[in-house]
Amino acid sequence: MSSATSTGPATERRSAAIGAHVPPEDPLAAAEATGAGAVQFFLTDPQAWKAPAEHPHAEAIRASDLQVYVHAPYRINVATTNNRIRVPSRKLLAQHAAAAAALGATAIVVHGGHLGEHDDPAVGVENWRKTFAYARNDGGFPLPVLIENTAGGTNAMARRFDRLAQLWDAVGEFGAGFCLDTCHAHAGGEDLSGIVDRVLGITGRIDLVHANDSRDAFDSGADRHANFGAGRIDAGLIADVCRAAGSDVIVETPGGPDGQGADIAYLLSAL
C-alpha cells in the first residue's frame, strides 16, 4: 500500500499503517495486543460534552512509532440548525483537535452530522463552511480534520455522495480531509465497488479508511460493525477498498484483541 493522500505540498509520503480503534486508557498496550501499526481512540466519553484532559500516557504516545488518530465525540454536530448544539459542537471540536495535536496525532476524525427532517441541506453545508472559516480566523485547526461518511439519517451531510459533493464544494478549499468507512457506505446505500474512484472524484483525497464489515443489509441505515466474514460485506471487497485508497486503515470491529487482531492480520495478508 502507498501512503495516505497528501494534506499539503510539503507532506512526505510514507508507508501506510493498519491498526484498530482501541480503548483510550492505554492505547499502546492495546496496539501491541492487536498487532496494530496505528491506533484510534476517544479522548473522553464519546457521548459527553467534555473537554479532554491531558492523556496519562501522552509522553509515551508522542514517542511511539504508531500512527495515532483521535475520534471526535459523537455529540458533535456542526451542521445542525439548532444553535444550542451547533455552537458547543464547534467549541468541542476545537478542544479535541487541540488535544489530539498535543498527542502528536496524525488527524482527528469527526462525523459529518445531520439536519432536522425538514431543514434545508444548504444550511448544513454553510454551517460546515463556517466551522472551518471560524477556525481559520483563529489560526486554523492544528491538525487535519477528517470528515467521515455516516450510515444513517435521511438528512445527513455525508451519507449519500451527492450530498457529500455539495459539502465538499464548501469545505474543500479549507483543506478538509476525508475518512471513508466501509460499513457506513454499505449501510448508507453506497456501493463499495468502485467507491474509491467515486470519492476521489468528489473530495480528491482519502486520508483514512475505517475498514468494517456490516451486520446489516445494504442501504439499511444501521451502523452496526462486524468482523470480516461475519457480516454482509465480502472481506475481499473491503481489502480492495483499502488497497485502492492507499491510506492508513483503522478497523473498528468487535471482539477485542482477538477479533481486531484477526481483521488486521487478514488485511496485512491481503494487501
Walk me through what this model shows.
The chain is α/β, with parallel strands linked by helices. The protein has a single domain (67-270), classed as TIM Barrel. It has 9 helices and 10 strands. The protein has helices spanning 27-34, 58-63, 83-102, 121-137, 161-171, 182-188, 195-203, 235-245, 256-270, and strands at 18-21, 38-41, 67-71, 107-111, 145-148, 177-181, 208-210, 213-214, 225-226, 248-251. An 8-stranded parallel β-barrel has the order 1-2-3-4-5-6-7-10, surrounded by 5 helices. It has a two-stranded antiparallel sheet with strand order 8-9. Strand 2, helix 2 and strand 3 form a beta-alpha-beta unit. The radius of gyration is 17 Å and the shape is globular. The N and C termini lie close together (7 Å).
SSE topology sketch:
Elements: E1 18-21, H1 27-34, E2 38-41, H2 58-63, E3 67-71, H3 83-102, E4 107-111, H4 121-137, E5 145-148, H5 161-171, E6 177-181, H6 182-188, H7 195-203, E7 208-210, E8 213-214, E9 225-226, H8 235-245, E10 248-251, H9 256-270
Parallel strand pairs: 1-2, 1-10, 2-3, 3-4, 4-5, 5-6, 6-7, 7-10
Antiparallel strand pairs: 8-9
Largest sheet: 8 strands, parallel, barrel
Topology pattern, helix = H, strand = E: EHEHEHEHEHEHHEEEHEH
Quote the distance from N terminus to C terminus: 7 Å
Helix content: 25-40%
